[in-house]
Write a structure and sequence with these properties.
Mean pLDDT: 82
Number of strands: 18
Order of helices and strands: HHEEEEEEEEEEEEEEEEEE
Shape: flat
Oligomer: single chain
Helix content: 10-25%
Number of helices: 2
Number of domains: 1
Low-confidence stretches: 23-30
Distance between the termini: 32 Å
């Protein structure tokens, strides 16, 4: 990867993080930190962050090769963010309770993603870009919001939510598509757009 492109990617990650803090002031202004950051560049990557999470945050950012990720938090301010870029990807998350927020983004090759949450202010977002995709999410309750997007090739996605203020959004694009949303109750607003070939 060229030095200019690498600097551009880092600037984008910083802008993304700043934007997230603007949207989630409770995590940025938390009383005491529980932070963690991992940045990797190439080869066999992996990651992993576990927290017992009080005022939380976490972040992983990997660039190339065999990637993986994983973040688990538990209760209070939460946040999470994983950005990956190329090769075999995967990312997971978890989070159990309180102010939640999770963002996972990938780019090209094996893709995957997954999130599981449990409750409180939620807002997940997953995005993928190219190749074998797949997504998922689970969520159980509180103010929800999900949003999985995918773009090119294998697609899939499953979203299940159980209850509270909901809003699921989605978009798949060119190739395999397939989607399964199983919502159960409360104020819903689901929107899906698919394309495929």
């Amino acid at each position: 990867m060229s030095h200019a492109k690498h600097n551009h990617v880092i600037r984008m990650v910083i802008l993304l993080a700043l934007g997230i803090f603007a949207l989630a002031p409770q995590a940025a202004l938390a009383e005491g930190p529980t932070e963690a950051y991992i940045y990797q560049q190439g080869d066999h990557n992996e990651g992993t962050i576990r927290q017992g999470a009080r005022d939380s945050l976490a972040m992983q950012y990997q660039l190339g090769d065999d990637n993986t990720g994983y973040i688990y938090q538990s209760g209070e301010g939460n946040l999470s963010i994983q950005l990956q870029s190329g090769q075999f990807n995967t990312a997971r998350a978890a989070t159990i309770g309180n102010n939640n927020f999770t963002i996972q983004t990938q780019s090209g090759a094996g893709n995957s993603l997954f999130i599981w949450q449990k409750g409180n202010d939620n807002l997940l977002v997953q995005t993928q870009t190219g190749y074998e995709n797949r997504a998922s999410a689970l969520v159980l309750g509180s103010k929800n919001a999900v949003s999985q997007n995918q773009f090119g090739y294998g697609h899939s996605s499953r979203v299940r939510v159980l209850g509270d203020n909901n809003t699921i959004d989605h978009l798949q694009f060119g190739s395999g598509t397939e989607l399964a949303v199983a919502h159960l109750g409360d104020n819903a607003v689901i929107g899906v757009f698919r394309f495929g070939l």
